[in-house]
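Second opinion, please. Pick holes in both lines of this record:
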Amino acid sequence: MADPGPLIEPHIPALRRYAFALLRDRDRADDLVQDTLERALSRWLLRRPDGDVRAWLFAILRNLHVSRWRRDRRHGASVDIDEAAPSVAARQEAALEVHDVLAALDQLPEEQKSLLLLVGVEDFSYDDAARILGMPIGTVMSRLSRARQRLRALVETGKVTLLRRVK
């Protein structure tokens, strides 16, 4: 077996960026990337040899994230009050705009958020995103269109709440 390290290592910064965009918590994002890398290494021989390593890694990361998200939703996620974001908003207008976009992004359904990040931030093609998410390309295109419309509406109307509903 050839060492998979040289094939995996160049993708770690993009995996970290994507994990952080999904979670917005560096420690949890690093844990997610670590778990992704462990899973990839332990299942290296099971991957398709002709497949795209980058897309395969992102699929693993997203599947782990969705599994944890579902588990947390079922059991209720806990928030440590000391780790909660400060309630004082930044004074710079650009920082406020970024904050609004991130808050709006958090209001999107998980599948729309993941898709927007894959295509818009990580620059995956629609084809690659379809393979990562395990859905037809037409579904990717329609969900991406709806996600962009919804994000735009949330940002433009200003109806962005900072609190998340916890069950």
Notes: The chain has two domains: 1-78, 80-167.
